[in-house]
Amino acid sequence: MSASPSSKLKTFLVSYDLRQPSQKYELLYESLKSYPAYQITLESTWIIKSHQSAYEIKNHLAQDIDVNDELIVISLSKDAEWAGLSEAQSEWLNDNLGNE
Questions:
Q1: Is the residue at 31 inside a domain?
Q2: For 44-84, what is each residue's pLDDT tens digit?
Q3: SS3 68
Q4: What is the DSSP letter of 5?
């Protein structure tokens, strides 16, 4: 993944629901881990940093899921709140949201 040195990483929420029977978690996890920064926030929710658009991320990740699976990619901003996350998760979110 290449980007110009002056371009900044954007923050995205990625959530998915992998349905039975094949649930290819490993392929999806490897693709999610390929982004410059990521945080597994909830069981099926990751927050990633990327130079790509939500559309490009969705297309990339959709290659690793089945036609009956669901996937959503949403751009995030600093205006976010959460509860019940670990200290490490909260710290990562504070450090990485709104840096666009």
A1: yes
A2: 999 999 999 999 999 999 999 988 899 999 999 878 889 99
A3: coil
A4: T
77-90 exposure pattern, b = at least 16 Cβ within 10 A, e = fewer: eeeeeeeeeeeebe
Q: What is the CATH number of the domain that holds 36?
A: 3.30.70.240
Tokens at 79, concatenated: 């205006």
What range does the domain containing 33 cover?
10-96
Q: What is the reported pTM? A: 0.80
Q: Bigger pLDDT: 58 or 24? A: 58
Half-sphere exposure for 67 (CA within 13 Å, toward CB): 0
5 lies in some domain: no
So what's the pLDDT on residue 39?
94
Residue for token pair 């690793």: 64
Do the Cβ atoms of 48 and 75 come closer than 8 Å? Answer: no
Contact 96, 39 (CB under 8 A): yes
